[in-house]
Amino acid sequence: MDTKNAGSHSDRRGFFKKALTMVITGVLAVVPLSAGLLVLLDPWRRRATAGGAVKVTSLAALPDDGVPRKFPVLANRTDAWNKYTNVPVGAVYLRRTGEKVQALNVACPHAGCFVDFSPEKGDFLCPCHNSSFTVDGKVANASSPSPRSLDGLEVEVRPDGGVWVVFQNFQAGRPDRVPLA
Ligand code: FES
Predict the structure, then answer these.
(1) Could you say which of 4, 116, 123, 172 has the lowest number of CB atoms within 10 Å?
(2) pLDDT tens for each residue of the chain, 181 residues long
């Protein structure tokens, strides 16, 4: 056998062995690293949300005059790594007529500024680009840039008189309501 050829075969075998060893070592190193990253990043896979109904006020504290009043919404919130209790997640206008309560998200559907209610004019006005809304949340005039009415929210008056709202924010700038996480 040609000794030069035998040497070259042996070199190639050595090279492939080394390459295979490096690949296996790399895979073994990456698998636990990926598993560790998944555990570390796991909180990102959980949704941060106020979630469910939150108590906003009581019926007794809400005058029966059909005038909207603004309330902060506090809820528990979970972000990537922490859980917070009773933090502000938004605000609502509540409007009581008899035993009926209407809830509107204060965020303007145009770009998310908070609207103000004017008791003198009897409507909502957005300070950012002048969208206006009727007392029950509908777009008040055709020149308003808001693409939809104020976002109504599910509201429930519980037997103990607590007023609970299913709080939700929605994407601004579009005519349909797309919930934000
Ligand atoms: S954000 Fe309200 S009109 Fe633009």
Answers:
(1) 4
(2) 455 555 555 666 665 567 656 655 554 454 444 444 433 443 333 333 445 899 999 999 999 999 999 999 998 888 888 988 989 989 999 999 998 999 999 999 999 999 999 999 999 999 999 999 999 999 999 999 999 999 999 999 999 999 999 999 999 999 999 999 7
Lookup: tokens for 134: 């009727």
Q: Atom 4 of ligand 1 has which residue's CA nearest to it?
A: 129
What is the CA(33)–ligand 1 centre distance, in A?
Answer: 47
Separation CA 6–CA 18 (nearest Å): 18
Q: How far is the CA of 20 from the centre of ligand 1 (A)?
A: 62
In a domain, 171, yes or no: no
pTM metric for this prediction:
0.72
Residues 107 and 133 in one domain: yes
Ligand 1 close to Cβ of residue 126 (< 6 A): yes
**61 lies in the same domain as 41:** no
- 43 Cα: distance to centroid of ligand 1 (angstroms): 33
Would you put residue 156 in left (φ > 0), alpha (ψ -120 to 50) or beta?
A: beta
Distances (CA, A) of 105 to 38, 88, 92, 152, 164: 36, 13, 5, 6, 13
CATH assignment at residue 92: 2.102.10.10
Number of domain units in the chain: 2
59 and 120: one domain?
yes
Residues 102 and 28 in one domain: no
